[in-house]
# Entry
Amino acid sequence: MIYGTGIDLTDINRVFKVQAHLPKFAVRILTAKELAAYQQLTGRRASEYLAGRFSAKESYSKAYGTGLGNRLGFQDIEILDEPSGKPVVSRQPFAGQAHVSISHTEQFVMTQVILEQKG
# Structure
């Protein structure tokens, strides 16, 4: 049964500019494992990755119903890639299953998260 769904659209260049001015932005958004993956990337791909994780965590917070803030933070959600490249929510506060999709254009990243509970 669907518990919640959330979508987000983020401007990749906006995230790039924030990271350029606030180098600790990535550390605030990404878990240690996500940060390790991010640090292996360069150029446009690094910007897409950071914007994608930011957007996916925004989508997750909408599906969860709390938004990001006191009850749910960026570090509470971890999204890693399978060897095939498919993003998977590997850590989360929700007891059920989380499905995530991340898609890029040249300018934007769009994400969707669906939270599914049994019963």
Notes: The chain has one domain: 2-116.
